[in-house]
């Protein structure tokens, strides 16, 4: 969502590189570019005005003039101000001291409240809570049915005494839902309320009546992050009519310019508590202002990446994988298990996008074919258990059989096997050098970690061994063609030297 803003900010910072001192004209120029970038991203004008004023005031002060690297200090100031307008510190849910915690959802129709109710319920379950969804949206056609379906998918209880579709009293349903939760010992109640195509008095009165009836601990205003400047008007109207305590941003995976996320906190004074980043029920998490600012400035979001890894990688299994890597016994079966675990974390494009400096590789990430992972899995699953444990036994006839079973070509099997051995060597080096926490031996990601080298130790130059050439002319021609096609590719489809040759922007290096 923030791609355009990210590009514009990086362009503004490039002009500061290499300057030992920054003049007032330099700061004015970069402030002007940042202002244009924010306005182009649909950030509210009052928010932009305050943001630029704070940046200029700090940039013209002593903290930049006395800094060893003034350009880096300006970027740090922009990062700090972004964190501030996004809310500063992470805001957590306030749970009731006694009785069930009541969370009420409010917002316009189409903002995604009903789906978000299921996402929030699933997230609360992961936190050890016992949530119950209450279907108080009785006006939108099939809203009750949709909530029941979403609740079933999330494995969360749904209280729906009325069929909806214009029938029933939502206030009575909300009150009955609270009593049912107390009776059945659910500790969190999520009340899904009706929305409208536009703001009207009836909507506000109904939402206010429900709030008065159940006295919620949290009132979450659900807003579509793609609505731009309208987010300000809508948020102010709901603040006056319902007085919400927190904001949930939906559709952050869209291609809009993202101004709502940068505006709603400053305009309403209410914190952004959660963010929805996709269609799956698991595409939902707590909103961290500092991490979002890091993404916008292309500094990555390693904390979120590590947290996601910890959810899907079992510690015991991870230790076993590390031992296998160190001992050189990592097999294709182990590799398949790692791939399946990584698939639970999300798409490779999203995972790579959380790494610092990936803004410079947007085109490569956008063109990455996620189906390649499925093809690799198909090839491995077409092998026998013995072949997965010992890929060296896969000769020509076996490769032909595997290619037919997986619906691929023999050269695809050849490339996978060859790249597996290359990747295994890389993963061994990564394991010895201490790779990413909780993710030992991430396949196909060369350049992460590496063997620790003793300071000042002399390294013996390694002699390159010549590649064996087959004596069969037909096989030799096939190998040459395969080598030519795979030229420029590293293990498991990553561009040769793409990560090793990639240089982070200097300002990011100094900040990290």
Briefly summarize what is shown.
Helix content is 53%, strand content 8%. It has helices at 3-14, 24-40, 45-59, 62-65, 70-85, 113-126, 143-154, 170-184, 201-214, 230-241, 259-268, 289-296, 302-312, 315-327, 332-345, 348-353, 362-366, 371-381, 385-389, 396-406, 410-433, 473-486, 506-511, and strands at residues 101-106, 131-135, 157-159, 188-192, 218-224, 246-250, 272-276, 284-286.
Give a written overview of the molecule.
By secondary structure, the chain is an alpha/beta fold. It is 53% helix and 8% strand. It is built from 23 helices and 8 strands. Strand 5, helix 10 and strand 6 form a beta-alpha-beta unit. Helix 18 packs across helix 20. The chain is flat, with a radius of gyration of 27 Å.
Q: Major sheet, described briefly?
A: 8 strands, mixed
* Secondary structure tally, helices: 23
Q: On the 0-100 scale, what is the average pLDDT?
A: 74
Q: What is the 3D form?
A: flat
Oligomer class: single chain
Cα-based radius of gyration, to the nearest Å: 27 Å
Helical percentage? 40-55%
Using DSSP, what is the number of strands?
A: 8
- Residue stretches low in confidence (pLDDT < 50, at least 5 long) are 434-466, 484-512
- Within the largest sheet, what's the order of strands? 3-2-4-1-5-6-7-8
> What is the terminal separation in angstroms?
24 Å
Instruction: Provide the structure class.
Output: alpha/beta
């Amino acid at each position: 969502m923030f791609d355009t803003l990210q590009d514009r900010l990086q362009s503004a910072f490039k002009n500061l590189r290499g300057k030992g001192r920054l003049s007032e004209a330099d700061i004015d120029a970069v402030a002007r570019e940042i202002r244009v970038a924010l306005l182009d991203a649909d950030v509210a004008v009052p928010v932009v005005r305050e943001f630029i004023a704070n940046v200029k005031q700090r940039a013209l002060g002593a903290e930049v003039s006395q800094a060893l690297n003034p350009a880096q200090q300006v970027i740090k100031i922009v990062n700090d101000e972004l964190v501030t307008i996004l809310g500063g510190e992470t805001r957590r849910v306030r749970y009731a001291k006694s009785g069930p915690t009541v969370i009420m959802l409010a917002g316009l129709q189409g903002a995604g409240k009903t789906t978000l109710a299921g996402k929030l319920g699933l997230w609360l379950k992961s936190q050890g809570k016992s949530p119950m969804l209450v279907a108080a949206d009785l006006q939108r056609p099939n809203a009750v049915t949709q909530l029941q379906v979403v609740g079933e998918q999330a494995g969360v209880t749904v209280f729906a005494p009325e069929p909806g579709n214009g029938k029933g009293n939502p206030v009575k349903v909300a009150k009955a839902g609270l009593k049912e939760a107390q009776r059945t010992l659910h500790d969190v109640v999520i009340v899904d309320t009706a929305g409208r195509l536009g703001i009207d008095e009836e909507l506000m009165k109904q939402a206010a009546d429900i709030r008065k009836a159940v006295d919620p601990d949290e009132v979450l205003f659900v807003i579509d992050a793609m609505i731009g400047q309208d987010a300000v008007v809508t948020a102010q109207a709901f603040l006056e009519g319902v007085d919400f305590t927190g904001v949930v941003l939906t559709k952050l995976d869209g291609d809009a310019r993202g101004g709502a996320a940068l505006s709603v906190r400053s305009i309403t004074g209410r914190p952004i508590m959660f963010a929805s980043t996709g269609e799956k029920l698991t595409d939902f998490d707590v909103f961290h202002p500092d991490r979002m600012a890091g993404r916008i400035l292309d500094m990555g979001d390693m904390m979120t990446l590590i947290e996601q890894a910890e959810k899907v990688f079992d510690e015991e299994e991870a230790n076993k994988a590390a031992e296998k890597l160190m001992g050189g016994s990592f097999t294709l079966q182990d590799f398949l298990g790692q791939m399946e675990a990584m698939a639970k974390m999300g798409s490779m494009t999203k995972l790579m996008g959380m790494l610092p400096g990936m803004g410079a590789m947007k085109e490569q990430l956008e063109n990455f074919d996620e189906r390649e992972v499925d093809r690799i899995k198909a090839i491995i699953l077409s092998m026998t258990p013995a072949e997965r444990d010992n890929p060296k036994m896969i000769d020509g006839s076996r490769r032909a059989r595997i290619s037919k079973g997986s619906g691929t070509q023999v050269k695809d099997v050849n490339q996978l096997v060859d790249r597996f051995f290359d990747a295994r060597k890389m993963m061994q080096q990564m394991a010895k050098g201490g790779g990413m926490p909780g993710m030992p031996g991430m396949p196909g990601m060369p350049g992460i970690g590496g063997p620790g080298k003793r300071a000042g130790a002399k390294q013996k130059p390694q002699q390159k061994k010549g590649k064996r050439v087959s004596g069969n002319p037909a096989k030799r021609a096939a190998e040459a063609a395969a080598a030519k096609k795979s030229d420029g590719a590293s293990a498991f489809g990553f561009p040769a030297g793409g990560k090793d040759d990639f240089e982070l922007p200097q300002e990011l290096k100094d900040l990290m």
